[in-house]
Amino acid sequence: MKKVLAVVMCVILALALPLVATAAGGNKGPTNEKDIKINEIPMEVSVLPVEIHEGDEVEITFTVPRSGSGWEYGEIFGLTNPETVFDEETCMYITTAMIDTSIAGPLDIVFNFIMSAGKSHIRFASIFEASVVILGETKTSNITYYWNQDFSDNYTGWISGTITLDSSAALFEGSSGGIGPLSFFDGSNDVWTGDWYSSIKVYLDPELTAEGQGFEYIVSVNNESGSYLDEYGFSFTAGPSYITAGCISLTDTVNITTPGWYTLQHFFYDNGGVLFVDMKLIAPDTSLALDVTIDTTYLIPSDVSGNRYAKFTSLTDSNGILVDDFQRYSIP
Questions:
Q1: Phi and psi (nearest 5°) for 105?
Q2: Nearest to 180 by CA among 59, 88, 331, 315
């Protein structure tokens, strides 16, 4: 019944508007564009973020009440694939479109919705203008992977400790002495080939780790002759309701209370001829839980060459450690 009434109301409104317009403007009609009367009508627009990322799919909706006997688009800018439907029950024109996020930078969005009321040349206009910033992505598309392991069907390259594949991840357990699995990535490297990253994800849950238990995760580099030079590691020790994370031999720590997949990232880079190491603990929401920079004083390439190994030590967590996405890569 509501739908029938709504349709009737739309028909009455569509028929009535031209009559009112004719009475007001006479039968002569406008003599030039200045005689066209334009009335504004309200428009509802879905909430639009101030910033969105390049390539994201973002839909925006414009809802305009029917105020004329016919409609036409005005200007559309910054939108792609617009589609308009008329809802007879609400007497609303509903237009959905995608935000054009193909190019990073400021984006102006303009949407003019224009309806005409027959011979009267009265027009009803609703105008929306907004600006958003399309954030360019990092150079992830240009990443060069030297080792990229997701543990979906194997744990190739890892030795020592006990390793079990577990739901597209791997469960690492330590020996009686706490020695855990070790990997040489794509091979021990005796040449400095440029700045490089290593990262691995670990699942941390304070509720599942007994107090006092934990592990260390270490990545090492070689000297100029391809032998062991030094190593840089994260440490994790469970407290009563948290896990304390830090960097080995450093005082920076943070207490983790939220369970989830955390990324342990090392970045080895040339800073004016000296090896620097950035160590980042990245939370599940991509925020930085820990961010430490180490000045090693090792000269490149006379003191240091490339990567050696990644290993888990002091692995005393009785439940083991779930790991995933083990990588070594560079970004131009």
A1: 125, 180
A2: 315
Phi, psi (degrees; rounded to nearest 5) at 225: -100, 0
**Domain residue limits, the chain:** 2-135, 139-330
Its CATH architecture, for the domain 139-330, is: Sandwich (2.60)
102-152: per-residue pLDDT in tens? Answer: 888 888 888 888 888 766 577 788 888 888 888 875 445 578 999 999 999
Class of domain 2-135: mainly beta
For residue 108, how many other CB atoms are within 10 A of its CB? 10
In angstroms, the CA 108 to CA 50 distance is 11
Nearest partner of 323 among 117, 161, 192, judged by Cα: 161
Tell me: the pLDDT tens digits for 160-175? Answer: 999 999 888 999 999 9
pTM for this structure? 0.60
pLDDT in the model for residue 30: 44
Say how far apart CA 93 and CA 103 lie, in whole Å: 29
**Cα end-to-end distance, the chain, whole Å:** 65
Asked whether the beta carbons of 317 and 216 are under 8 A apart, the reply is: no
